[in-house]
Design a protein that fits this description.
The chain is of the alpha/beta class. Helices cover 44% and strands 15% of the residues. It is built from 13 helices and ten strands. The chain has helices spanning 5-15, 46-59, 74-86, 100-106, 120-134, 145-151, 153-162, 176-185, 201-208, 221-224, 231-240, 249-263, 269-280; strands at 24-28, 31-35, 67-70, 90-94, 112-115, 137-138, 167-171, 190-196, 243-247, 291-295. It has a six-stranded mixed β-sheet, sandwiched between helices. α2 (46-59) packs across α6 and α12 (249-263) crosses α13 (269-280). The termini are far apart.
């Protein structure tokens, strides 16, 4: 099972008018930010959610039973938002540890919210059981072709908006975003995975040769806390030679603080993880290398930045 560049281009056509074309800014010579934190619901996730739902609507899979989804927060927001926009019910399973900022937003989107377990994997198992019982459409957080193709539209926009660049840094949890971006631009630029040191799902998989479960933790676990990298992300990482780097919690916190102090961007920890690789030196660009960073999530309590 793979996702092609044509799949990403078709997704871009399908979701046009449903998602924002988020801005790209050059913040320093050779350094560009793709501001996906300005997307609907505060992250890139509506791209994949809309592509999944609209594809299912076209095929007749989307029925009055609506959708079910499991999420650490951001995917649930996106799935609930897309379902509301398309007029179908949504049941969203989230861990009991979901941050209040995300839970509060989720409650405004007319979804049935179920809190279960302490991490994403437990919420996902509950969502699977609910899907089996109800026949609702399952909208996976990161490992469905339609979801990955939708996330890949971030990469298509970046190519159109940023002009020439050599490298793009992407935060990785389950891997839907990096799978889509690698598919969209992997033949044009180096794609670098940035993962929390306490949740190295992609690096672990590449080292052992297959996706494998592992412990997750740290400050970004609510958004980058998948136990196992998605099969689509693993395949795309191998196909496009994705490089991986790790950043510790201290670097992530510093990156988040710097994005606020220097650029007035209020990001969650997962949204700052890719930038943390540059700030900490975990990724060191070569002389003259042009780098793009996807700033991917804004669902945080701004009071924690002051």
């Amino acid at each position: 099972m793979t996702v092609s560049l044509d799949d990403v281009k078709q997704a871009a056509e399908r979701i046009a008018g449903r998602v924002r074309r988020t801005p790209v800014i050059e913040v320093a010579p050779g350094l560009t930010f793709k501001l996906e934190l300005l997307q609907h619901t505060g992250s890139f996730k509506p791209r994949g959610a809309f592509n999944r739902l609209l594809s299912a609507k076209d095929s007749g899979e989307l029925t009055g039973q609506g959708i079910v989804a499991a999420s650490g927060g951001n995917h649930g927001l996106a799935a609930a938002y897309a379902a509301r926009e398309l007029g179908v019910p949504a049941r969203i399973f989230v861990p009991e540890t979901t941050p209040a900022a995300k839970l509060g937003k989720l409650r405004t989107l007319d979804a049935d919210i179920v809190q279960v377990g302490s991490e994403y994997a437990e919420a996902y198992q509950a969502a699977l059981a609910a899907q089996d019982e109800s026949g609702a459409l399952l909208v996976h957080a990161y490992d469905q072709p339609e979801v990955v193709a939708g996330q890949g539209t971030v990469g298509l926009e970046l190519l159109e908006q940023a002009g020439m660049f050599d490298t793009v840094l992407v935060a990785v949890g389950g891997g839907g975003l990096i799978a889509g971006i690698a598919t969209a631009i992997g033949d044009n630029a180096q794609v670098v995975s940035v993962e929390p040191a306490l949740a190295p799902t992609l690096q672990r998989a590449l080292e052992v040769g297959e996706p494998t479960d592992g412990a997750v933790g740290g400050v970004a676990a609510d958004s980058l806390g998948a136990r196992r990298i998605g099969s689509l992300a693993f395949e795309a990482a191998q196909r496009y030679g994705v490089r991986t780097v790790l950043v510790d919690d201290e670097a992530i916190v510093a990156g988040r603080n710097e994005l606020w102090r220097q650029y007035h961007l209020a990001t969650e920890h997962g949204g700052a993880t890719a930038y943390a690789a540059l700030l900490s030196g975990a990724y060191r660009p070569a002389a003259g290398e042009r780098v793009a960073v996807v700033v991917c999530g804004a669902n945080t309590d701004p009071a924690t930045l002051i």
